[in-house]
Structure formats: structure tokens, C-alpha cells
Design brief:
The protein has 321 residues and is an alpha+beta fold. It has helices spanning 34-38, 61-74, 125-129, 131-172, 183-200, 214-240, 264-280, 298-320, and strands at 11-15, 20-23, 47-48, 76-81, 87-93, 104-109, 115-121, 205-211, 246-249, 254-259, 285-291. The chain has two domains: 11-154, no CATH class; 183-320, 2-Layer Sandwich (Alpha-Beta Plaits). Helix 2 (61-74) crosses helix 4 (131-172) and helix 6 (214-240) crosses helix 7 (264-280).
Length: 321
């Protein structure tokens, strides 16, 4: 307690970059003059002198919470440095055992009994005088630290859940064998392409492609051989299409392609490129092409391309005898 006739306000000053400087003023201790203040060590926290009465600690909780970020990152946090540069008041977080032979140590204890850290202070008259204030500060810091950590755990769990949801969505839209979008993704691609074509009045082409000899390969080499044929074809399609075009595996040996913007001439060129690239790796395929008519939906265009592909397949079978 301060001697009668003297005031001993305990002031907390908040420093930059998350530091908190605790100026524990003993009664009658004069404020340092400007020369003394300017002679501080370069690493000292910059002190903003905004005294906070001990009864208003709770009102300063947000400022202290901001300062706790330094404590969370570094595991030790200097509240007050003595005139000679030595640490006079230190907060440590984590499992630091209390040392009975050391100076005053105040645990950062939350209501359920967990100790989140400790305040170290020297055995001195000015510290002893404000030990009840430090105990109150310790409870506040413990509560804030516990709240902050709980918030971080919740944020981490939310991030993990969001990543898992994105991964599940990607897996749900991806063909496991080829890595291309699957039939479900293809339905979305049709809707997105139709919206784009309508909004920007862009021409679009839809191509349906079906491998010719998958059954023969499966009978001759087994399903591993058939899977290899599908993967090879998928790699070729993904490599040959233009950058804005989209390709998906929509069935066992069937692929769908959307080319936008793409008119009839560009679609014919793309068809030739696809057939040529597949032939180079020994893959034969039937192909149907349909140019999108604004009077129809893109799904109808896809159905017409699919019908054109089966017509091409029958023609090729007749030609091969």
C-alpha cells in the first residue's frame, strides 16, 4: 500500500509490435525526463504512456489480447525492463515449472486449474507492493491467452474442414482413372459453357468421342490393357485441345469436349488434330461434332454430337468390312 498522502497509480503502457511495457511506479517516483527517455536501449519497446487504473484492466482486454500475439509466437514476453536493461517483469507461456527459490512468480491460471504460463518478477518493494495487481493481471492474461488459443483451434478446425470439403468436391468431380473431369463435372461444364455463350454471344462447339477398340483390347489384354488405352487417349485429348477448351470422361470409353469460342471451321480443324494425335499413339476413335445453335440448349447440342459420333462409328465399321 502507498504511504498516506501519496498516490501510487499502477500504470500499464502498451508498446508497438505487440509489446506491453509495465511501468510499476512506486509512490513518489518521478517520471523520467526527456533526456532519460531518449537514452533508452534501441531494442526497448516503444512505450505509449496511457495509464490504465487497476480497476479498468478488463476494459483494456482487447489491447492486451493484441499484445498477446507476441507471447503466442515467442513463448516469452517482456512486460517491463529495468533501468539497466535487465528484464524486471517477464511473462512466459507454456509449461514452465514454478521455482520456489526464484523471485515472485504468479501463475497464469484459468478457472479450470490449467496453468498456461507464469509471470516472473523480482523480489523488490515496488513489485511486492503491486503483487495483487499482478495477480489480477495474471488472471486476465490467462483468460485472454486461453480464449485466443481456443479461437485458433476453432479456426484451424474450420480450415481443415474447408480443405476436406474442397478435396471431397474435387474427388466427386474427377475421374479416378484418367484424372479428367467426370460425368458429374461434365454436366456442370455444359451449364457453365451455355451461360458464357449466351452472355457473350460466343460460338461454341461440342464434340463427342468414343474409342473404337476398347472391347477388343479388354478381351485380348484384360482390363489393365483397356485401362491403359483409356489413359493414353485421355492424355492425348488433354494435350491437344486448346487452352480454353474443356474435356471430360463421360462414360467407359466416351469423352466429351466443349470448345468455346469455336465456329464450324475451327471445330473441323480441332477434329482433324484430335484424330491425328490419337492415331500417332495407335488409338482409333469415332468422333461427332455439333455447332451450338442459340435456339437450342447446349445439352441438346451435346445429344446431337453424340448421335453424330455413333453415326461416324457405324460408317467406320462398314468401311472396315
Amino acid at each position: 500500500m502507498a504511504p498516506e498522502g501519496q498516490k501510487g497509480d499502477d500504470a500499464i503502457s502498451l508498446g508497438k509490435a505487440g509489446h506491453v511495457s509495465q511501468q510499476l511506479q512506486s509512490p513518489g517516483t518521478p517520471e523520467p525526463d526527456a533526456n532519460t527517455a531518449n537514452a533508452r536501449h534501441a531494442d526497448d519497446p516503444v512505450v505509449v504512456r496511457e495509464p490504465v487504473e487497476r480497476d479498468t484492466f478488463l476494459a483494456s482486454a482487447r489491447a492486451m489480447l493484441d499484445a498477446l500475439h507476441a507471447c503466442l509466437g515467442g513463448r516469452s514476453w517482456e512486460l517491463w525492463r529495468g533501468e539497466g536493461g535487465e528484464s524486471r517483469l517477464l511473462v512466459r507461456t507454456g509449461r514452465y515449472p514454478l521455482d520456489a527459490d526464484a523471485c515472485i512468480q504468479i501463475p497464469l491460471e484459468v478457472q479450470d486449474g490449467r496453468v498456461l504460463g507464469v509471470i516472473h518478477a523480482p523480489e523488490s518493494p515496488e513489485v511486492k507492493e503491486v503483487e495483487p495487481v499482478l495477480a489480477q493481471l495474471g488472471r486476465i492474461l490467462a483468460t485472454l491467452l486461453d480464449t485466443e488459443r481456443a479461437a485458433r483451434r476453432l479456426e484451424h478446425r474450420a480450415e481443415v474442414a474447408a480443405r476436406r470439403a474442397r478435396l471431397a468436391e474435387e474427388q466427386a468431380l474427377t475421374d479416378g482413372l484418367t484424372g479428367l473431369p467426370n460425368r458429374r463435372a461434365w454436366e456442370r461444364m455444359l451449364a457453365e459453357a451455355e451461360a458464357r455463350a449466351t452472355r457473350y454471344a460466343e460460338p461454341a462447339a461440342v464434340l463427342a468421342l468414343d474409342l473404337d477398340d476398347l472391347k477388343t483390347v479388354n478381351d485380348r489384354e484384360g482390363h489393365l490393357g483397356g485401362d491403359l488405352l483409356i489413359r493414353v487417349a485421355a492424355d492425348v485429348l488433354a494435350r491437344v485441345i486448346r487452352r480454353p477448351d474443356r474435356v471430360a470422361r463421360v462414360g467407359g470409353d466416351e469423352f466429351g469436349l466443349i470448345a468455346i469460342p469455336c465456329g464450324r471451321e475451327q471445330a473441323d480443324v480441332l477434329s482433324v488434330r484430335l484424330r491425328s494425335a490419337l492415331a500417332e499413339v495407335g488409338v482409333e476413335a469415332s468422333l461427332g461434332v455439333e455447332i451450338h445453335d442459340p435456339e437450342r440448349t447446349l445439352r441438346e447440342t451435346w445429344n446431337r454430337a453424340d448421335a453424330a459420333m455413333y453415326h461416324d462409328k457405324q460408317t467406320r465399321r462398314r468401311q472396315r468390312g
